[in-house]
Structure formats: C-alpha cells, structure tokens
Design goal:
mainly alpha, Cytochrome Bc1 Complex, Chain D, domain 2, 2 domains, two-stranded antiparallel ribbon, binds heme C
Length: 342
C-alpha cells in the first residue's frame, strides 16, 4: 500500500503546485496588461507626421543653444533616460529632477513626476521653454523651423488642412505622435501575461507573487505597472531624506493643497532595470535599494534579502523589446536659421 499512498500524495502536491501557478497567472492578468502596440497618439497619426515628430525629437535646433535635443535627456537607445541624478540642460544648468523614461510614456495617465501635464502633447511644450532644459521660445522655434524649406514641406504634408502648418502647437502634436511609437512590447512578463508560463523563471515568479502579495501592485498596476495614480512617497513612513529631499514637495506645488505634499505620480516600472538612478530625486542608484525603500515607506514592510532579490528579478522581466529607430537625416540650416545662442 505504501508506494501507492506516496504516489497519491505526490500527485496532490503536484496538482496544487499547478493550481498555485495558474492562480498567479490569473491574478496577474487581473492586475496588469501586456503592451498591445503603439499608443493612441501614434494610432491617430499619419506616417508623415510620425516621421516629422522623429526629426523634431532628434533635432537639437529646437533648443536655443542648438546642442540639446529631446534625445539628449531621453536617449532612445539607452532606456529613454540620461542616467543622470538630475538632468543637465542649457549652459550646463542642473535641473531639479531625474528624467523619467519616454519609453511607454504614452500609457501614463498624466506626464511629469507631479503630473502637471495631462498628455504627451502638452508635455512636449514644457522642456523646449524651460530655462534649465532647452531655454527656447515658441516664436524662435517657429522661426527656426520656417527657415528650412524641408521642414516647411514636411509640416504641410503632416497637417494638410492647415494654412499655417508650422506652429509650436503642431510641433508638439508631431513629437507626441513619434513618442507614442516608443513602446517596448514582448517583455518576458508580457509573454507570461499572454499565457506562456515558461516566460518567467522560478525566481521571477516568486518575485511576482511577493510584488502582488505585499501590496506593490496596489499602486504599480495596469499596462505600465504604474503611471495611473498619484500617491504620497512616504505613505507608511518618511523615506530616507537622501531618497526624498525635503525641498521638492511634488504635487503640492501644482494643486497648492497641503495634503499633496510629497505626492507624486506613480512611475511606470517597465524597463526599470535600464533606468537608474531612481525616484524623482535620482538619488538611489541600486534597484535593490529602491525596492527596499518602497517596501518600508509605502507598505511599512521590511523585505528579507531573498524577497528583495526575487522582486528585483521580477522587475528584470519588465525589460521589453527596445525600439529600433533609424536616425533621421535633418533638414540643413539656411542663411535665415537663427544662430545658436548660449
Ligand atoms: C535637459 C534635459 C531634458 C530635455 C532636453 C528634455 N527633457 Fe523631458 N524630462 C526631463 C526631466 C528632468 C523630466 C521630469 C521633470 C519633472 O517631472 O518635473 C522630463 C519629463 C519628460 C516626460 C514625462 C515622462 C513621465 O513619465 O512623466 C516626457 C514624456 C518627456 N520629458 C519628453 C521630452 C521631450 C519630447 C523633449 C523634447 C521636446 C524633452 N523631454 C526634453 C529632462 C529633459
Ligand atoms: C502607495 C503607492 C505605492 C506602493 C504601494 C508602491 N509604490 Fe513604488 N512608487 C510609488 C511612487 C509614488 C513612486 C515615485 C516616488 C518618487 O520618486 O517620488 C514609486 C517609485 C518606485 C520605484 C522607482 C521607479 C523609478 O523609475 O524611479 C520603484 C523601483 C518602485 N516604486 C517599486 C515598488 C515596489 C517593488 C513596491 C512594493 C514593495 C512598490 N513600489 C510599492 C508608489 C508606490
């Protein structure tokens, strides 16, 4: 009898393991979603408009100095970030915050760490004018673009119904259309969500279970594992001053509501293994440390070394297929193109 009982017990154990695995996949599909394709701004745009947006994204002449493009701080070949603690812009000026990735930004419900722009188009107007970024003016950008016949022709094709297509506003529309193509599908986690149980390693599955069970997914959920809500950085207790310096109160500055002190838009965790350093402050270089700070400050939990390593392994599974972008050949400057100014 003995061997038979053992075999039956083994069968029960094996089938409950299968159930636990099925259950993890089912719970995951309820909380997260795979990337299905480009974002809405790209779906609504023509090929011509996306190509124009690409040129503008890579063109440093959108900045006053003629040196800084969107790609300077959001390197499409480098996780969509600059790797700096906080960005360096016009005349070597150091900005106040870390550059978030542009990859999959189209899926965020709002833009910037404090959510002050509602969408990619409105967002794109900010850095061009920011003194510590590109330090330009809408009029000067329009004069620059109008000075190059190739741009005038491209704008006319991209905005065929308009009499004066070369505008600052249309520049932002085109850039947003291009940015919405910068998505990273086919991450191991996407394949898992689509039913491939082998797409994650055993450790990544353990990390996923810890991520869900300890409460990370209450804020980091949806297609972007974040990007959808505003939350205080420090729900369960103040994070270390090094990670959350006191001077930047986040959303409080946008809403003037003291309840919004230290509230930030939850960032996406897609490609997070590529986007160090972390947090709006950019003070934390290690993902392991960022995960531990999150557990303490958002959930009041201390992760064991093994749990933290599992969660980091799971976060690695969020690195998707990086966009392959052919560099645009930019229209040549002409005699009337405003000279670079520093
Ligand atoms: C000097 C560096 C720099 C340049 C140049 C720059 N950015 Fe940024 N970008 C940043 C920083 C820093 C932030 C975050 C600022 C904040 O939240 O207050 C940001 C935020 C963003 C975001 C929001 C992402 C999110 O998750 O909220 C997008 C999208 C973006 N930039 C796109 C662009 C585009 C398009 C351009 C060119 C028109 C551009 N950036 C130029 C540094 C830069
Ligand atoms: C209550 C909401 C909430 C919970 C729960 C939460 N987070 Fe966060 N997470 C945030 C917010 C808000 C930020 C941005 C903080 C900042 O920089 O101001 C963030 C930032 C991060 C970052 C840095 C991302 C970057 O690009 O800089 C990582 C990594 C992260 N969270 C992982 C986790 C993990 C792992 C857990 C669970 C242990 C977790 N989070 C739980 C809200 C939350």
């Amino acid at each position: 009898m003995r061997p038979i009982i053992l075999a039956a017990a083994a069968l029960v154990a094996a089938s409950s393991a299968v159930h636990a695995a099925d259950d993890l996949m089912k719970r995951s599909t309820e909380l997260f979603a795979p990337i299905a394709g480009p974002g809405p701004e790209a779906k609504a745009a023509s090929r011509t408009m996306i190509e124009l947006g690409k040129s503008l994204y890579f063109d440093p002449r959108v900045s006053a100095s003629g040196l800084i493009s969107c790609n300077s701080c959001h390197n499409v070949g480098g996780g969509g970030v600059d790797g700096m603690e906080t960005s360096v812009g016009h005349a070597w000026a150091k900005g106040p915050r870390n550059a978030p990735t542009v990859l999959n930004a189209t899926f965020n419900a709002s833009q910037f760490w404090d959510g002050r722009a509602p969408n990619l188009k409105e967002q794109a107007k900010g850095p061009v004018q920011a003194g510590v970024e590109m330090n330009n003016t809408p009029d000067r950008v329009e004069a620059t673009l109008k000075s190059m016949p190739a741009y005038v022709a491209q704008f006319a094709k991209a905005f065929p119904k308009e009499k004066q297509p070369v505008t600052f506003d249309n520049m932002a529309t085109a850039i947003a259309a291009f940015e919405a193509t910068l998505v990273t599908p086919d991450a191991p986690f996407d394949r898992y969500l689509k039913g491939d149980a082998k797409a994650l390693t055993a450790q990544q599955k353990k990390g996923l279970a810890t991520f869900i069970d300890s409460g990370c997914a209450s804020c980091h959920s949806g297609v972007n594992l974040g990007g959808g809500s505003f939350q205080k950085f420090g729900v369960a207790g103040d994070p270390p001053e090094a990670a959350r310096p006191g001077a930047d109160k986040g959303r409080e500055k946008v809403t003037s509501n003291p309840d919004d002190a230290f509230v930030f838009r939850v960032p996406t965790l897609r490609n997070v293994a590529l986007t160090a350093p972390y947090f709006h402050s950019g003070k934390i270089r290690s993902l392991d440390q960022a995960v531990r700070i999150m557990a303490e400050s958002q959930l009041g939990k201390t992760l064991s070394d093994a749990e933290a390593a599992d969660v980091v392994a799971f976060l690695d599974s969020l690195t998707g297929r990086q966009p392959q972008v052919t560099l645009p050949v930019l229209p040549p400057s002409t005699a009337t193109t405003p000279a670079p100014s520093l």
